[in-house]
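Archive entry: two folds, one per protein. Generate the first.
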Amino acid sequence: MNFTACFRSWASVLLSLGLAMPTHAQTNSVHLGYSDTPIIPGTSWHVHDGDRPQPRVVTPGTTFSQGAGAPSDAIVLFDGKDLAKWQGNRGAAQWVVRDGYMEMNGTGGIRTKEKFPDFQLHVEWSTPAPPRGDGQSRGNSGILINGMYEVQVLDSYQSKTYPDGQAGALYGQTPPLVNASKAPGEWQTYDIIWESPRWDDTQKVIKAGCVTVLHNGVVLHHKRDYIGRTDGIGGIAHKSLGVYGKPHAPEVVIELQDHSSPIRYRNIWVRPLGQYDKP
């Protein structure tokens, strides 16, 4: 038993005997998140705040874009056969490919060999069944854009965590509007529209990076801005909270995060958005 578990156990005993009063550290937030992290700019909430309101649950339709074929101008990133379009952190991508899907296996995240400008991305994913663990330990992965901006992948079906870390959250910044998760083992879809940030000649951000995200056909975010790089708990990450850092080109890589959960992915394609009045 670790220290946190031991603390919770003794706190429960003392509370049951009436010898202690519940504190913030002993309430729901100790299970779900944190209260000693920085305030997210533009909000009254801490990063990964366990007291932030939980998004309401919406049951999605049976199907939406599962199995959606790639449009004629799309680039197929994974067709269920091989990882030719992907690379690992130290060379070739090493995830397992079988039965039309790829599965993470602890060898690290994988990212596209190509870069893409503002785009429409289709991804299908599935978390382990039966579920393993709880909170952030339950089916954790993520869609990372340029290794900087994350849309969280997590098993959030009848499972709570800090709201800015649940499925579909802009990690550490914005919870989804609703929880549209399906049960563990079921195939789920993300349809993501990404627009890269832009800088002027003085390296000032003149347009924030933003996303529209549909989860199983339900809108989680609509043109929602990232306040900067997404981050995790503790360490140097918080120093960049609300900061974009050095300018980067509109063309970005797409990464699938390996968070030590056997998440499966299939049917991944991307297409550039293009511009009005430009063929």
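Generate the second and append.
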Amino acid sequence: MAENKRNPVKRPEKRQKGPAQKAPKGAARSQNDWRNPVRGWLGSHRDSAVQAAIRVLRQPLSSAMTVLVMTIVLALPMGLGVLIGQVERLGVNWQGAAQLSVYLEDQVDAAAADVLRADIASLEEVREARLLDKELALVEFQQHSGMGDALQQLAYNPLPSVIVVTPSSIEGGASALEPLRDRLAALEGVDLVQIDLLWVERLTAILAMMERFTGGLAILLVSALLLVMINTIRLAIESRREEIQVIKLVGGTDAFVRRPFLYIGVLYGLLAGVLAWALLIGGLAWLNSTVRDVAALYQSGFELAGMPAADGLLLVIGAMLLGLVGAWLAVGKHIRDIEPQ
């Protein structure tokens, strides 16, 4: 008893809650509250995208046919647009080299022609004036025409001296150069002034017509693409009618049912856009050899620049958006009409 009194049994002390054992504060709870729904939303979209890819892979033949049809529909107007844009670039380059040909009268000798060239070069509207002597023109014509022997039999030189005038500006086209043409035609010793820009303007008018045609064609083909997508998604919905009814029966919403089909449309658009981009790259490269041969006949180094990367990315993004829009139009009504019995 004495020992027990000397060494009394100690009762365990009550532990106080330290800072680490305190209940989580409102800020931590709030942080977890908004993260969990976001994770759930991302996980739901990830699962829907995986389901869409699996459904596309399970039907390789029908999926390939749909993607090929969309590829052709996308590549045709885009290819025409790229070609027109590059030919327009060629027309702009030729417009930059637009000139006026000033043909001199036969009685104007070399000295008078040089004085006239200097007078024309001093005009404010003229950037450069270059004299092509009639004797030099005859020699070059004999060398390049293949009729050198026949031309040597002529008693006189039938070619006139020409002053090639490069205007300071070609804004406004050929109509803007008419005042300069009239001013040059009024000079003494000038027989005729010709503007070498009319055929470029004709080319520009033809390209404008082709642009309008391409725009109309693009509208028709995009409408056809949407119809193809709507029909494809509608068939996919009908083939899973019973599955959709079961999902709705257990509480699945229309948005949950709709999401995989939207991803199918986006996936179709992505595949078609990438294939159309590759098709245009190969097609332009194949066509480029012929373009170079034709340009060489006109002493030009023009060639197609290929498919620009920005246009290719725009094509892929546009194809994905079209696939999404087509799928949305298809599922909007059909999903609502399917209800559990």
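Annotation attached to the second fold: The domain at 99-196 is CATH 3.30.70.3040 (Alpha-Beta Plaits). DSSP finds eleven helices and four strands in the chain.
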